[in-house]
Each structure stands twice: as C-alpha cells, then as structure tokens.
Write a structure and sequence with these properties.
single chain, 105 residues, SH3 type barrels
Length: 105
C-alpha cells in the first residue's frame, strides 16, 4: 500500500506585516462617486401639473433653480415634461423635479 504525502505547511514569513483578517470584518465596500443614484419615487410623478403652468426646476442638473413654463407632458414609466426656461432654452425634466409657482393675481 502506498502512503499519501502530507501537505507541507510553512510558517508565515518574517517580513509579512499584514494582519490576518476575519471574513466579513473588512472595510465598507468602495462606492464610486460617479455612480448614479436612482429615485424610486420618480415613477409616481407629480400630480396637478398641466401644459402652460409656471414651474421651478428643482433638484440638480441643467437649469436647476430656474423658472420655466410647461410646453408638453409625457407619460411613461417616469413621467416627464418638456419645459422652456425664461431664458428661452428648453429641456425635458422629470415631473418629480418640478415645483409649481403660484400664479400672480
């Protein structure tokens, strides 16, 4: 009968300076700063908006904080509106990022 050769176990090197880590005890996973965040409430949209309403663009992105007029509303998975800013530029915005501006009397 042949005997099996046992695996040789070597002690750690004297130059090994890394501490042993327990599984699952490592640092938090790295999250890249360029990863987009998803707003799960955007699918519901904002109620009460109609074509011709004056709105303020909230949130981040292009023309944030500017006043605009709704030119077109589109439905879908994420409701959106085509708006034209007071500077004359147009852009498509999620309706959740629009805040109605009170009409002047």
């Amino acid at each position: 009968m042949a005997t099996r050769k046992r695996k040789t176990v070597y002690p750690p090197a004297r130059t090994d300076t890394k501490p042993t880590q327990r599984p699952g005890a490592g640092p938090e996973p790295y999250v890249r700063p360029t990863v987009a965040t998803i707003d799960l409430t955007a699918g519901s949209g904002r109620a009460g908006l109609s074509v011709g309403d004056r709105v303020k663009i909230s949130g981040g992105g292009l023309y944030a904080g500017e006043a605009a007029v709704i030119e077109k509303l589109t439905g879908g998975v994420i409701p959106a509106a085509l708006v034209r800013t007071e500077a004359g530029r147009s852009r498509q915005v999620r309706t959740i990022d629009l805040e109605p501006i009170a009409r002047e009397a």
